[in-house]
């Protein structure tokens, strides 16, 4: 039991590193806030998705980075204000055989971003990481994926919105997708 | 280590591909060269916080790199560092004045270095693909202001070529102190494709 405790503690600490955000959504403080969500399939990547963030590019603000909640490839944030946002970065900690390495991937800045002009729910889409490297050199790319569908992503989100004002909007969107 | 440092710095500096020589008068030209005058303008202008540059390329801040070649092959991703070779370093919204071989060439496009601070370089690619006619008797040629309009995601929403020939001619004659002729050879904006994304 004594030997188990340090191992269990380190697992808990590592789990807490995953962006520092819980999976449970909260009632947004800003009535103009939107829910933004999407999915990245990291099966071919060197790590699992543990963080994702966007950068606000318009209007200019002092703190432009928005960190997302993450659950099993789904990323979501219910507190995104009105503005224009670039997809900025995602990543995670390496898994076997990639070792204890932090992997961060940055989106090009010259890329179609997200323009939020009125509060709502916005689906970025499903993306898939591609391994294009070889034995000598690791190289990864990301592309649009057909699966999972928006509906499948939403179904993963609904339990995390339980009891919040976001829940009704998610259920309404699910109804529209039927 | 202290002795090796200058050598190390020289080797690192050699990693940055060479650029076109800046010349401020036709008297600076070598045999077989022409003086090329023009400008690149961005609307909205390039903001300081849009660029993250390492010390090695810190003097690229605020500049747009005009990529020239023999053929108007458009620049594309992935943009390799070696493709910066032979670039015209155009200070954003100010005239550049460089020496080029006296022969027709093409502007393949322009590049704005956005992040050269880490292993993964990131840049905005601006469309080009226009030929510039240089004649055997040319000494100085003015090709106009290439004006790119962009949105907040670096999508190019419009390109035009503006004619500031009279102002540039007056400034050059004042600077050069002699009535040299600059031939006007504006590039054609209609040849520049705008790719909607």
State the domain count of chain A: 1
Largest interface: A-B, 12 and 14 residues
Order of helix and strand elements from N to C terminus of chain A: HEEEEEEEEEEHH
The number of helical segments of chain A is: 3
- Helix and strand succession of chain B? HEEEEEEEEEHE
Mass-distribution shape of chain A = globular
Distance between the termini of chain B: 50 Å
Structural shape of chain B: globular
Distance between the termini of chain A: 50 Å
Physical arrangement of strands within the biggest beta sheet of chain A: 4-5-1-9-10
Flag low-confidence runs of chain A.
1-18
pLDDT averaged over residues of chain A? 86
On the 0 to 100 scale, the average pLDDT of chain B is 88
Which range best describes the helical content of chain A: under 10%, 10-25%, 25-40%, 40-55%, 55-70% or over 70%?
10-25%
Q: Evaluate the radius of gyration of chain A.
A: 17 Å
Oligomer: heterodimer
Put the structure in a nutshell:
The complex is a heterodimer of chains A (178) and B (197). Chain A has three helices and ten strands, in the order H-E-E-E-E-E-E-E-E-E-E-H-H.
SSE arrangement:
The complex is a heterodimer of chains A (178) and B (197).
Chain A: H1 4-16, E1 34-41, E2 51-58, E3 65-67, E4 69-71, E5 74-80, E6 83-93, E7 102-106, E8 114-116, E9 121-131, E10 140-144, H2 150-157, H3 165-176
Parallel strand pairs in A: 1-9
Antiparallel strand pairs in A: 1-5, 2-3, 2-6, 4-5, 6-7, 6-8, 9-10
Chain B: H1 4-13, E1 33-43, E2 52-53, E3 63-69, E4 88-91, E5 95-101, E6 105-116, E7 122-132, E8 140-150, E9 156-162, H2 165-176, E10 183-184
């Amino acid at each position: 039991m004594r030997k188990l405790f340090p191992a269990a503690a380190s697992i808990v600490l590592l789990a807490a590193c995953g962006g520092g955000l819980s999976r449970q959504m909260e009632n947004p403080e800003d009535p103009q806030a939107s829910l933004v969500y999407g999915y990245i399939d990291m099966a071919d990547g060197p790590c699992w998705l543990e963080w994702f963030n966007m950068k606000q590019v318009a209007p200019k603000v002092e703190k432009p980075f928005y960190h997302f909640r993450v659950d099993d490839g789904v990323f979501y944030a219910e507190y995104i204000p009105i503005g224009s946002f670039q997809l900025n970065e995602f990543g995670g900690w390496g898994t076997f055989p990639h070792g204890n390495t932090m992997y961060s991937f940055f989106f090009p800045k010259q890329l179609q971003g997200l323009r939020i002009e009125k509060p709502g729910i916005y689906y970025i889409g499903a993306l898939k990481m591609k391994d294009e490297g070889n034995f000598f050199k690791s190289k990864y790319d990301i592309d649009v994926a057909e699966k999972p569908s928006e509906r499948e992503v939403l179904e993963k989100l609904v339990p995390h919105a339980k009891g919040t004002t976001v829940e009704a909007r998610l259920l309404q969107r699910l109804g529209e997708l039927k | 280590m202290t002795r090796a440092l200058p050598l190390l710095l020289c080797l690192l500096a050699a990693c940055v591909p060479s650029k076109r020589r800046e010349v401020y008068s036709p008297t600076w030209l070598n045999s077989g060269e022409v003086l090329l005058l023009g400008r690149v303008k961005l609307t909205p202008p390039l903001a300081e916080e849009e660029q993250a540059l390492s010390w090695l390329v810190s003097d690229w801040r605020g500049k747009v790199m005009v990529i020239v070649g023999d053929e108007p092959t458009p620049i594309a991703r992935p943009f390799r560092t070696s493709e910066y070779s032979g670039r015209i370093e155009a200070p954003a919204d100010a005239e550049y004045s460089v020496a080029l071989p006296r022969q027709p060439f093409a502007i393949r496009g322009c590049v704005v270095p956005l992040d050269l601070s880490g292993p993964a370089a990131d840049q905005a690619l601006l469309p080009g693909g226009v030929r510039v006619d240089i004649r055997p008797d040319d000494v100085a040629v003015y090709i106009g202001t290439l004006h790119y309009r962009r949105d907040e995601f670096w999508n190019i929403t419009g390109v035009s070529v503006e004619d500031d020939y009279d102002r540039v001619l007056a400034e050059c004659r004042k600077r050069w102190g002699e009535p040299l002729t600059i031939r006007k050879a504006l590039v054609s904006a209609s040849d520049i494709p705008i790719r909607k994304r």
